[in-house]
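ok so for the tutorial part 2 we go from a plain amino acid sequence to predicted structure tokens. step 1 is just haveing the sequence, like this:
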Amino acid sequence: INAEYMGSWLLDVSVKNVMDESGKKDQWFMLVSLLGIFVYLVLCCMTFTDIPPAHRVITALLLPIVAGLSTLTSIGLSSLVGIPFTALATQVLPFLVLGLAVDDMLVVIFLLPWGRKDLPAVDRLRICLKHAGPSVFLTSSANLCAFLLAIIVPVPMIRWFAAQSALAVLINFLSVVGIFIPLLLLLCSRQTAPQVVSEDISRSSSEVNLTPVPGYQLPVRILGLLLFVGLLTLGGVGCVNADAGLRWSALVPQGSSTHDYLMVREDFMKMDSNSLVMRNFPFEDPDAQQKLTKAIADLNQLPNAAANTSIEAGCFWSKFVAWCKTQPGCYAQQAVVPATFYTFFSAWLPNPGAPFSQDIVVERSGAEITAIVAAKCTLINEPASQYFDIKDVITQTRELLDATGLPIFATGSGYQFVEQYLHVAQHTVLVLGIAVAVLSGLTFLFTLNIATTVVVALVFAALAVQFTGMMWVFGLPLNGISLLNTIYGIGVSVEYLGHVTAHFCRAEGSGVERALDTVKTLAIPLFHGAMTSFLAIIVIAFSDTPFFVQYFFSMYAGMILLGMVNGLFILPVLLSFIPTALLPTTTLSTNDMENQCSQPADPQPIRVQQCVEDRFPSPTPQK
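step 2 — the prediction. this is what the tokens look like for a chain of 623 residues:
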């Protein structure tokens, strides 16, 4: 069995080959996912009864086309600037960016007054952009900052993915502004020409009744507070109990020989061979010799040391000291005599083909060794439980070696792979703290209101805790990928929190009235945006690679759900508690732009009926 798995692992399979093969299998799932998104968008656009059916289909078709073009453009620019492609870029990035782009475009579509055919297309689009423009700009800026922050994670693959995602977010915003909105303007201009209407038409199709719903004052807001506290508590428990690591078997498709081999290694072959490395070590110093001998003996006593294998058996130093003790004049006072150290060491290691010569780099003057440049000893560890718990081995070993104060350290394949897990918790707290601070600062710049910013910052911080706790619920450990996903989750949540906050600050009335107006106006487009985001990632659930399913479907699906719950329910509830005196100054009036036409600026408002009659006068009756 070992020969079969080891042969497959060493000869005919690489991680790159496995990922490429998995990508080929997922192509059909990707096409089905794109088709499902298009069908869902068509059904959404069919609810617009004010526009012709052909225009509804065209509008639904514009969404994935513009998002797809921006995604391809961002991938091409990434390649042009030299950002390497990975499995994350080819199998995850297109669907994530598609979800982000469609969210913003859906908000624009639903806030566009399609039924206001009494207004020119330019004015209808201007009404829409006054509602949706600031929130789209806020969400895009926040997403861009979130991905740029992920670049500081010291893992190359994560940095590449974060840079590609940041570039994609920027291209998406420019595509929405420069391509999608002009195309909407063209569709609006092809609708029925303006006609004379009654004064009642001045009421916007997006205007809602601001009368508070009976019972909203107490039960609904209390329920929102309880839900907020409950999710925050569950997230806090998950943060306390979260572990760090990543199973190697999760990185390759299930059913492959590589996956089976890694499962066997994780469950049964727990011993890991590493190295004790010394560079420019003062071997001729008796004090350094004694510290090295004691460190090797102490490493053998650690709980994670291999039970049946001692370090001395695979260490040149232990073999040399044992041999030196048998030679007259070589060993005295618990150390090799400094004056004759290299003379005896040259006799013990006479030529490059001698035992342990491959573990030692020396300088020679003829046949005699004059200096030991570098050397290593075999260090075999056995983690106490799962394979990725080697992080505990690294911590214990390095604490012991650092105490010697000598140029000696432990390394190896296991050490290199799990190095990130030693400080991933601190990195997570640092990066999420910076992300919450930056997003809160952006919120203040857009709202210029301290009370609103404090509430939004509280929800951002709570989401960071909830995302980390969600990983514990799903049984996923902390690592660089989960850190990137959490940052992405904060960015995705901005799609909900940003639109809600921007609309709340520009609405009228008390806190409760503004909250109701915001939910009634944005609930439908944000819900459809969440559904399209879910459809964009559902293809990942069918991947053969557990890594993609766990970290790029389960986590993202949970983040979409938490983001929607916090954005459409918890945040409006918390904002409704802000006293009226602390609310931002209203800048959005329900009838401010609906009562204007495309006329030169006039200090007096122009009524729709008067404007239309002036531009389209009734014909003179014929006798």
